[in-house]
Amino acid sequence: MITRVNLHPASCKYLKLGHPWITEDTYTKRFPKNDFFLVGVDEKNRQEIALLINDPEHKNVKARLWSLNSEDWKKDCDFKSELQIRLKNSLQRRVKSNTVNERENFYLVNGESDFLPGLLVLKLKNQILIQYYALFWKKVESELLEVLTYEYKLVFPDTTLEDIWIQERNFNQAKSIRSISGKSISEFKLKEYGINYQIKINEHYDFGIYTDMSAIRKLMRPYLEKSKSLLNLYSYTGAFSLFSLKLGATNVVSVDLSAKYLHWLDDNIALNPDLQADLHSTLCMPSDKALEKLFLEKVKFEAIICDPPSASSDGNTTSSALKAYEKLLPLMLNVLSQNGSLFVFLNTHTISWNKFEEKLNQIIEMSEFKNQMIVGKRFKLNDDCLPLKGFHEGDYLKGFLIEFKNKGNS
Q1: Structural domain boundaries in the chain
Q2: Pairwise CA distance, residues 357 & 360, whole Å
Q3: What is the model's pTM?
Q4: What is residue 342's three-state secondary structure?
Q5: Which fold has domain 211-404?
Q6: How far apart are CA 267 and CA 264, in angstroms?
């Protein structure tokens, strides 16, 4: 018999609308700690409404939706069989898309949108990276690995699965990653849109390329193809820089605070003999200082990309990306050519699309560029990383295109 728990009225409302999380409240404090499954009860209407997976170890999310179908908790729940169905469906959706032909890094499982809450699974060439955002997956890890390995071999019969890595994602950015084969580190190349990238699993918290940005890069291609110059702020290991060089840019500048990542970027360029390294340069400094330097040098760019970390620190103060745009946006507009395209991103679910857009417009209105700019097209997560409808926490990556109203006119 699965334990029944009363849910907060707000939780009942959102579960019925398909939202997959139960966040901490006075009701969740009474949840049992050791049960894997719970049946959520609408106390007011005396109605059982959802089968939940208990998540007592998570800081904020105390349970996650597994099913709204009452048949799933009225009978004995065969978790392994249901897991296999969901994994099979998720993998088959990917293999039916063109993504597998365009890049060697993509999501096999994207958590809640694939009805596998708190679980991300990435294919990185011939290796798999499993990311736990909910630690209850550790309790069923053997079943997960058995089913995932079986379904993977069916979907990718011609691919050798070299290794599986498991990473527990947490809030303090500490590394917690292990290989089921016992390796301590793995370095290899993979291709995305015909470009080689060096991947390093377990050398840093992240592995060298942000896969959730991959599909967005494809959407930006028509704009970058027209741009002969690119400024890539917070460049990390340079995926956008290499992408622009591949598309014909003749002046690409990458900016990052980390010399380590900029060296990695140079290594990535060296992996691609068709890219001209002399068309690329780096600035190892804060983005605002780089923008001030480029403005004084009277340099203009036809494309600028800005994807700051959700929170950053200079050692004394910590500021959010949204706050940082108050300084960064006018500086970027100073070095944007009249016919240029500015792409600004925000990486957090706590700020809505409308609030982000409103803030950008407010900053522009307070600048010398008042009435000159349009905050237009949105660049959203899509393809293999498409978020679940109505689940705003999964819609965390937000991008806008900003252009001059009289674009193309001098």
Answers
A1: 3-74, 79-201, 211-404
A2: 5
A3: 0.94
A4: strand
A5: Rossmann fold (3.40.50)
A6: 5
Q: At what angle do helices 353-365 and 321-334 cross, to 10 degrees?
A: 40
Superfamily for 79-201? RNA methyltransferase domain (HRMD) like (3.30.750.80)
Token code pair at residue 364: 């522009």
Task: Give dist(CA 352, CA 42) in Å, integer.
Answer: 29
Do residues 149 and 182 make contact, with C-beta atoms less than 8 angstroms apart? no
Which has the closest alpha carbon to 136: 61, 70, 26?
A: 61
pLDDT band, very low/low/confident/very high, at 315 (cuts 50, 70, 90)? very low
Average pLDDT, the chain: 94
Task: Quote the CA–CA distance of 372 and 76 in Å, as a whole number.
Answer: 63
- Rg from Cα positions in the chain: 23
Tallying the residues shown for the chain, one arrives at 410
Is there a contact between 397 and 345 (Cβ–Cβ < 8 Å)?
Answer: yes
Amino acid at 110: N
| C-alpha span between 324 and 313 (Å, rounded) | 11
**Burial level of 120, CB count in 10 A (0-12/13-18/19+)?**
buried
User: Looking at the DSSP assignment, which residues form a beta bridge with residue 165?
Assistant: 129, 179
User: Cβ(58)–Cβ(135) under 8 Å?
Assistant: yes
Q: Which amino acid is at 249?
A: A
